[in-house]
Amino acid sequence: MNIGPPVTPERTQSRLASRLLVETQLTSLVRAIAIVRKLAGGSFVFDRGIFFLAILRASGEVLADWPNGPRSQTDNGGISINALSQSLHRPFETVRRHVNALIDAGLCVRTNSGVVIPMSLRADPDVAALLVHLHDSLVWLADEFHAFDMPLPRPATVDHPYRADITLAASIDLALGAFDNVGMFVSDWLELAIVGAVLVASVRRITLDSELSRQYSETATVVPIELRDPVSAAAIARAMTIPYSTVRRQILATTADGKLIERGRGVLLSDDMLAGPGAAIMGATATMRTAALFGRLVPGGFPFHDPKSAYVAGRPALVDFS
User: What is the pLDDT of residues 62-109, one digit of tens each?
Assistant: First the structure.
């Protein structure tokens, strides 16, 4: 009987893709929430940063031809409260209340086309820094994929300079895409953010270590619990600028549901969350989502052969859990 060589399964590196994707989403969301909190006078409402991002994405004039001036005939865009409610799966009255608060703070305005971020806000130093951070976060994701020899599109020959505004818009879509998992694996936005923070913080040294990251890159290669670093409620609260009491209360509820486990003076994701059927689904989804997202950058002339050349300000600072 002839015995052929063993078949090597295709390396999708889906678990590594998931870690990098969540890291990218988290840094974008944390920066947006912090900026909105600062511009709104320091009052904390977690949801408001997400609504701001969604309205920003719909504000065509603000994103057009970024970081240069807007095109002369750009549609201002805008989104209605009803459309915002449907796209983010939030009650209409909840959305209306938060949007009104953003309007009162001068962070968005009503137009005939819906609610938009005013063009004047693009020149605000904090908003300008947020836009750069959002852009460079997606460049970082492509840069990491390139470093780990993960699939990337072939660069296209285009007759125009690199379109950074296309990357910026895609980055906002990526951040908002995190909330597609609400109702599937987590109950609400806050739980999603905290579970994501625990995942990122507990395995970051694995993610940023070239050898270890490759070793634990597949769906079947779960990072052992002894290699994961527990993260405390205090560290999450500081990193995400969320009140400690809010974080602690959510961690207790999420632990009671079996999604987190206590370990030392912090918490980790449970093995059910990391190795259960949901992890495989999330890994496959992350791989497909990033492939589709990167595909959108091809017409904009994104330099997939050299992602580093697309940075505006360089590699963005990751969320600090120290």
Answer: 999 899 866 555 567 899 999 999 999 899 999 999 999 999 999 999
Distance (Å, rounded) from C-alpha 238 to C-alpha 320? 9
* Residue 135 tokens, joined: 């852009």
Q: Tokens 């994501």 label which residue?
A: 196
What residue ranges in the chain does DSSP mark as E strands? 109-111, 114-116, 260-263, 266-269
Residues β-bridged to residue 261: 268
Name the nearest CA neighbour of 88 among 191, 188, 21: 188
Q: Which residues contact residue 192 at a Cβ distance below 8 angstroms, ignoring those fewer than 6 apart?
A: 178, 179, 181, 182, 186
Q: What angle do CA 75, 78, 80 make, to 5 degrees?
A: 145
CA distance readout (Å), 311 to 85, 100, 122, 142, 315: 33, 35, 19, 11, 7
- What is the residue type of 119? M
pTM for the model: 0.91
